[in-house]
Amino acid sequence: MSHNSRGTGQATRVAPPREAARVYPPKPTDVYLFGTCVIDLFFPDAGMDSIRLLEREGIKVHFPQAQSCCGQPAYTSGYTEEARAVARAQLQLFAADWPLVVPSGSCAGMFRHHYHELFKDEPAALQQVEALAARTYELAEFLLHVCRIQLSDTGAPVKVALHTSCSARRELGTHVHGRALLAQLGAVERVDHAYESECCGFGGAFSVRLPDISGLMVLDKTTALKDSGASEVVSADCGCLMNINGALEKQGESLRGEHLASFLLRRSGGK
Amino acid sequence: MNARERILAKLRGSLEGTTPIADDYDTALVTTPWTYAPAQRVARLRAQLEAVHGETQLTTSAEWPARVFAALAERNIDELLVSPLTLHGQQLAAQLALNKGGLRLKAYDRAVETWKDELFFHTPASLTGTLGGIAATGSLIVWPTVQEPRLMSLVPPLHIALLKASAVFDNLHEAMHTQRWSEGLPTNALLISGPSKTADIQQTLAYGAHGPKELIVLILQDA
Amino acid sequence: MPNFAALTEAPIEFKRNARAALADGQLRRNFRGAMDFLMVKRAAQFADDEECEQLRAFGNRVRARALSRLPALLEQLEARLTRNGVQVHWAESVDEANTIVHSIVAAHEAKNLIKGKSMVSEEMEMNHFLGERGVDCLESDMGEFIVQLRAEKPSHIIMPAIHLNVGQVAALFHDKLEVDYTEDVDLLIQIGRETLRRKFFEADIGVSGVNFAVAETGTLVLVENEGNGRMSTTVPPVHIAVTGIEKVVEKLRDVVPLLSLLTRSATGQPITTYVNMISGPRQADELDGPREVHLVLLDNGRTQAFADSELRQTLNCIRCGACMNHCPVYTRIGGHAYGTVYPGPIGKIMTPHMLGLEKTRELPSASSLCGACGEVCPVKIPIPSLLRRLREEAARRADAAPHHVRGQGANHSTKEGLVWKAWVKMNTSPTLYRLLTYAGTRARGLTPANIGPWTEHHAAPKLAPRTLHERVREHLGEA
C-alpha cells in the first residue's frame, strides 16, 4: 500500500442514516415545537424561523410555554436523576397526538432515543416516551419527509458548507436530510469541507472540561469551513453553532454559521 | 476457593436468571458476498494474493517442477528445503535427477533444535504442499505435518507452495465446513495470505518482516 | 513522558498529558496522517454499507452469545485444551498472572523470553515484573521492538509505534543498534529482521496473546502480518499465551465473521498474512513447535464489567483499534496521553474496570460523545453510552447502592451536585424558568468577557435580547 491514498484523508464519511427506514405520515394540521434551551436563550431567531417555515407549509404550530430543556446536559454529564426530573417535566407537555418538531438534532435525539434509557424502569412513563419518540422529528427531516417541502430559491448564487452535529448525523441522519433540502435551492452550491463528519469539539460540558482538546477541534473545524470556499455556513444544531461562531468571533473572522431554518427561509422568499 | 473457582463463581452469579443466547449463526452473511463462479475462483485468489505481493503461476501437475527450478535459478538459489517423503517431493527429486540439475534438495528430517542455525541462516528456500486455498481472501490452507513441519513455511526467505485448483474454496466458511475442521484440528493450522509484511514504520508497507520475503504459489490447474 | 497507571497509585493525569501532547506539533501530524490512512483503508474494505452493517450486527450477536454462556465456555475451553495437552492457568489479578508466568519461567530456568504482540502482557506489565527478577523479555513485533528500544509503551493497540515517523525510527536504529542512518523503510525492516532472527531461537520461552480462544476445539487463534507471532509460538521450547477471560468464542465457525471484522476494521486488510491456529504442543513425532504450551486466563476487572448487563458489552471487544483510529480526541493527543495500556475510546470504558475509577476519573469525561467510535465498532459496543454510564458511576455518591464499579463516586462533588439540583429547579418550574431567563436576557450586557475555560477559544457567548419563549408568546399568544 502506498502513501498516495493518504491525501484522501479528507476523510469525509457520509454514512447513510442508521435508523430503520421510517414510515412518514401525511402532513399534519398541527405540530408541537420544542424550542430547546440553547435556541431559547442564544438563537431565538432560529426558533422563530422554524415556526415561520412550518406555518408557511400551512401547519399550526403549538409551543407549550412550560417547556425548558430536554435534559441532555445533565444526562451526558452522568447526572441521570436530574436529567430524568427535567425530562419528566417535558413529557407532560405534548399530550395531543401531533408531531413534535425539534430544530436541533441532539435534542431530537434525546426524545427519540435516550428518554427510553431514562425511563426504562417505569412502565407507564415508558409507554408515553415511546409514543412521543415515534412522533418526534428533527426539523430538516420533518420538512423534507413529512411536509415534502418544495423550496424555490430566490437568492443569488452562493457556496454553502453544511455542518451536521454528531448526534444529528449518527442518531437521525440529519446530514442526508440537510443536503437534500439544500439541493432544492437552485443557486446554492453545497461544498464539502475537510473532515466534514468530524466533531466540532462542542460536546456540551466537554468543551469546558477539556478546553485544550475541544479548542483544537473547533480550530480545525473552523479552518476546514473557511478553507472550503463556502461563504456561508449552515447547521441544524445550535450547540455546534455556538461553538463554531464563538470560535470564529474569537479568531476575528467575519464568517458566522446560521441555523438551517433561517437560511432556508431567507433563501426561499422569507415569510 | 482458588482463582479459577472464584472467577467462575462470579461469572455464574452475574448470569443468574438469564438464558444463554441461542445460536442464530447466519451462514449466508459470511458466504454469499464471498461466492464466485467456478471460472472466477482461481482468478480471485490470484488477484488477492498478488495485491499483497504474492506471486502466482498457473501450471500443471506435470510441469510444476520446471517452474520451481526456474524460480530458483532466477534467484541464484541452489538449495531447496523439501520433504522426500511427500509425493510432490519425490516428483521434484525425480525430475531433478532427470535434468541432472545442480540444485541441492534438503530435508527437514530432524528436530529443529539440532539444526536451528542452518535452518535460520543457510536455507534460502522451501517447497510445501497446501490443503487448499480460499478465493475470497487469497489464502493458502496449510496444516503442517511430520513431513512438512511448521517452520518450513516460515523461516526460509522464499516459500514456494503448491495449490491444486480443485482445492480452492470460495471462502473460509466453506473451507472450514467442507474439510470438517471442527472435528479435529492439527496441533497447528495456518492460513497464509502472502509473504510476511509490516507497516509498523510510518504505515509504509515493507515485505519480509520476520517470515518469507517472497511467496510463490504454483496453481496446478489439472489437479 | 506521561505517567503510566499501573506503576503508580496516583490518578492518571490525563488533562496534563493531553496538554503536553497537543503542544507537540510533530506528534499531532504523525497521528493525523496515520489515522487518515487507517480510516481510508477501513472504508475501502467496507465499501458495501449494507454488508458492513449486517456483519457488525452478526459480530455483536456472536460475541453476546459467547458472553451469555461465558463460564460454561471457559470450562469447555479448559477441558479441550487440557485434552490437547495445553496447560491452563487462571489469574484474578495481574500479580497472579505474573506469578504464574514467573513460575513457568523458573521451572525452566529460563533467562530469555521472546514476545509476539500481546496487549494483555502489557496490561500485566510483564516485562517489568520479569525484568526485576532477572528475566529478559524482548519484543519481536517491529512496532513493539521500536517502542521497547525507546523505553516507551505502545501508543496504539494495533500499531504500537504509530506515534513515530520514519526519521525518528531511523535515528533510533542508528543510535541503539549502531547501524548507518537510513530512512529507507525496507532497509530499516531488514535491520529489525536480522537483529531479531537469532533471538527467536535463542529464547527459552515464547510469549503471545490470543485473538480468539475456541471452546469447541480448544484452539488459540492468533492473527498477524509479520510472522513474529508464529516464530514466538513455534521456535522456543515453551509457549505461554496470556489472554483475558472474555476472548473465548463458542465454535470454530464463530471465528469466520469475527476474523473478517477484525482485520478489515483494524488495518483495512481482507485478512492478515497469517492466521495461526494453535491446538496443542508438539506431538512425539513432530519436528518443531513448543514442547509445552500454557494458557493464562486473566480476569483483572473483567468480571466486574461482566456483572452488569450494560457494562458487559465492553467485553465484546475484539481489539481492532478502529475506535481510536476514528476518534477525534485520540487523533489529536495520541495514545500515550491516556496513561493506560488501552488508549482511546475502548480504553476509556475498559480501564476503569481494571484500575478503578479513582485512578481513571478523568477518562470517561474526555469525550465529546460524538459517536464516531460506536459507529465503526465491528461488534457494536455502544461506547458513547458506556462512557456516559461511567460518568454516572463516577458522579454518584461513593456509598450509593447498588455498587457496580470500583471507585464509584470518584468525581462526586457536593458543589456540582448542588448546581445540577438548581438546574433541575429552574427547568422544572415554568415560573422560575421564565423569571430567570427574563433576568438573564435583560442583563446580557453584563456578560463578562472572560468566563473560564470557554473563552480560551471562544468569544464570550451573549444571551439574546429576548428569549424564544417571549417571542413566541407575541407571535402565537400564551399557550
Question: Can you give me a brief rundown of this structure?
Answer:
The complex is a heterotrimer of chains A (about 270), B (about 220) and C (about 475). With about 270 residues, chain A is α/β, with parallel strands linked by helices. In chain A, about 45% of the residues lie in helices and about 10% in strands.
Distance between the termini of chain A: 55 Å
Specify the biggest β-sheet of chain C: 6 strands, parallel
CATH architecture of the largest domain in chain C: 3-Layer(aba) Sandwich
Structural class of chain A: alpha/beta
Tally of separate domains of chain A: 2
GO molecular function, one term (chain C): 4 iron, 4 sulfur cluster binding
Keywords (chain C): 4Fe-4S, Electron transport, Iron, Iron-sulfur, Metal-binding, Repeat, Transport
InterPro entries (chain C): 4Fe4S_Fe-S-bd (IPR017896), 4Fe4S_Fe_S_CS (IPR017900), FTHF_cligase-like_sf (IPR024185), Helical_ferredxn (IPR009051), LUD_dom (IPR003741), LutB/LldF (IPR004452), LutB_C (IPR024569), NagB/RpiA_transferase-like (IPR037171)
Protein name (chain C): (Fe-S)-binding protein
Topology:
The complex is a heterotrimer of chains A (271), B (223) and C (479).
Chain A: E1 30-33, H1 37-41, H2 44-56, E2 60-62, H3 72-76, H4 80-91, E3 100-102, H5 105-118, H6 123-134, E4 136-138, H7 139-146, E5 158-163, H8 166-172, H9 174-183, E6 188-191, H10 206-209, H11 211-227, E7 232-235, H12 238-250, E8 257-259, H13 260-267
Parallel strand pairs in A: 1-2, 1-3, 3-4, 5-6, 5-7, 7-8
Helix pairs in contact in A: 2-13, 5-6, 5-8, 7-9, 11-12
Chain B: H1 3-15, H2 27-31, H3 38-51, E1 55-59, H4 64-74, E2 79-81, H5 87-99, E3 104-106, H6 116-121, E4 125-128, E5 132-134, E6 139-142, E7 158-164, E8 168-169, H7 172-178, E9 188-192, E10 197-198, E11 206-207, E12 214-220
Parallel strand pairs in B: 1-12, 2-3, 4-7, 5-8, 7-12
Antiparallel strand pairs in B: 5-6, 6-9, 10-11
Chain C: H1 14-22, H2 25-45, H3 49-68, H4 70-84, E1 86-91, H5 94-107, E2 112-115, H6 119-124, H7 126-131, E3 136-139, H8 142-149, H9 166-176, H10 185-202, E4 205-208, E5 212-214, E6 219-224, H11 228-234, E7 238-244, E8 248-249, H12 255-267, E9 274-278, E10 292-298, H13 302-306, H14 322-325, H15 328-333, H16 344-355, H17 372-376, H18 383-395, H19 414-428, H20 430-442, H21 454-457, H22 468-476
Parallel strand pairs in C: 1-10, 2-3, 2-4, 4-7, 5-8, 7-10
Antiparallel strand pairs in C: 5-6, 6-9
